[in-house]
Amino acid sequence: MPRPHGSKNRDYDASRRALAKAVSAHLLRADGEPSTFKDLAAGAGVSQQTLKHYFGDRATLVRAAFEAIRDEASPYFDGLAERRASRAELKAALVAELRGVVAAFRRFGFGRSFGSGLSLGLGHPTLGPAFVELILEPTFQSLERRLAHLMEDGQLAARSPRTAALSLLGPLVLALLHQDQLGGVACRPLDVDALIAEHVTAFLDGSSPRPARSRGPSSS
User: Fold this and answer.
1) What's the pTM value of the predicted model, to 2 decimals?
2) How many Å apart are CA 202 and CA 140, to the nearest integer?
3) Burial degree of 135 (CB within 10 A; 0-12, 13-18, 19+)
4) Cβ neighbours of residue 149 under 8 Å, at least 6 residues apart?
5) Of the candidates 104, 180, 194, which has an alpha carbon nearest to the alpha carbon of residue 143?
6) C-alpha dist (Å) from residue 6 to 2, 60, 76, 149, 170
7) What is the DSSP annotation of 38-71?
8) CB neighbours of 42 closer than 8 A, spacing ≥ 6?
9) Dist CA 175 CA 154 (whole Å)
């Protein structure tokens, strides 16, 4: 029995996700310019007509690629949000977690995808908010939840978890973009491991719970 006109194949959604994932590695050309629809089709190994069938236009395709990047990274960041550590091992735990962010950026390609999304999103009326929603905010929100747990446990001073996450992760993200995506390693190399150790120490020094003030004897 023929399929009704306008209906989708049973594997339509799976095929769409697979194409978005394939495209996500080709958002920028080798010269750093945004990829055209033709470039993206070539990168995915399909025709432009196939991409149009599944996505319609380039902006929708790029948003779907951002979703694929988020889905690829989410298991790591979700795990980060749920970890617990005692006060004694807190510094080592935060150092290890920031090193995990470095691994996600460098070993597993998240940095390339992050840089591509940032490049495409800056100043763009729809891709900018899509990058914030699908890549930038999930990256920070996982750490935000992690720090909120530590504040609830009394291991960090109570303050805005969002501000704390931005202050802890922001310098590392900037350092990785500086070194890797912008080529700063060639003109001003940075020891990222040393940065992490020093930064976590400073973060904890400013985030330690304040001891309760003891009351002196009341005067009669």
Assistant:
1) 0.83
2) 19
3) buried
4) 81, 84
5) 104
6) 12, 19, 38, 48, 46
7) HHHHHHHTS-HHHHHHHHSSHHHHHHHHHHHHHH
8) 26
9) 30
Please tell me the distance from the alpha carbon of residue 73 to that of residue 107, in angstroms, as a whole number. Answer: 12
CB 178 within 8 A of CB 114: no
Length of the chain: 220
- 14-50 burial, b at 16+ Cβ within 10 Å, e below that, comes to ebbeebbbbbbbbbbeeeeebbeeebbbebbebeeee
The single residue listed with the structure tokens 């080529």 is 183
- 154: tokens are 């009394």
Three-state DSSP at 184 gives: helix
Cα–Cα distance between 208 and 204 in angstroms, integer?
Answer: 6
Q: Where are the alpha helices (DSSP H) in the chain?
A: 12-24, 37-44, 48-55, 58-82, 90-106, 110-121, 127-131, 137-152, 161-176, 184-187, 192-207
Residue 109 has a pLDDT of 85
pLDDT digits (tens, 9 = 90+) for 57-113: 999 999 999 999 999 888 777 766 556 666 668 899 899 889 988 988 998 888 999
